[in-house]
Amino acid sequence: AQRVTQPEKLLSVFKGAPVELKCNYSYSGSPELFWYVQYSRQRLQLLLRHISRESIKGFTADLNKGETSFHLKKPFAQEEDSAMYYCALAYSGAGSYQLTFGKGTKLSVIP
Amino acid sequence: EAGVTQFPSHSVIEKGQTVTLRCDPISGHDNLYWYRRVMGKEIKFLLHFVKESKQDESGMPNNRFLAERTGGTYSTLKVQPAELEDSGVYFCASSQDWGTVYGYTFGSGTRLTVV
Question: Contacts of residue A33 in chain B, CB cutoff 8 Å?
């Protein structure tokens, strides 16, 4: 069965410091991985997808199949990055296209 | 375009009562999904509608939960009778096409508290 693990419940960093939010997955197929973000009082929104190899708001994430990881990184944290971050794995199950989420990591950027 | 709208934003009910959550997807989106996050746990898939049909309801926890999508527009999720462990945040999402998570748009969620 597929599984997504985010080992840190809370991560606090100072403004300007590098950030790394960890995500590990378990999946027998070819993974399709995402990072979602939820800012305070806002809805869950897609941050980035591994398949696009993009950088959004300065964040990047590289899929490492050997380590089954998809860590989210940013070189210099900003206060506006404070939010809940969820790593998610997409797969097809029972004729549907589902997301399996990790428990989430709350990022707090200290001014 | 208007986003995915969920009602109510918060609901507090007593154990044994009934609660109905509503989701209005983005107009024209055939695919509608329900997810929920209970305290301390992951956001988990509940079910997927394609228009008015249930494509996949493998994530529904038990028969106290009933989801409908009459006419393929808005959807309701009824919990009857509610139990304490049903407390959590219920998310709805919609997409034009299935098979592309890129097109998922989530609602703000309904926070359900069962006391």
Answer: none
Contacts of A70 in chain B (CB under 8 A): none
- The rounded radius of gyration (Å) of the Cα atoms in chain B is 13
CA–CA dist A30, A41 (Å, integer): 34
Identity of residue A66? G
Q: Token pair for residue A50?
A: 């591994």
Rounded CA-CA distance B109/B9 in Å is 6
CB atoms within 10 A of CB A24: 17
pLDDT per residue as tens digits for the range A17-51: 999 999 999 998 888 899 999 999 889 999 988 87
**B1-52 confidence digits (pLDDT tens):** 579 999 999 999 999 999 999 999 999 899 999 999 998 889 999 999 999 9
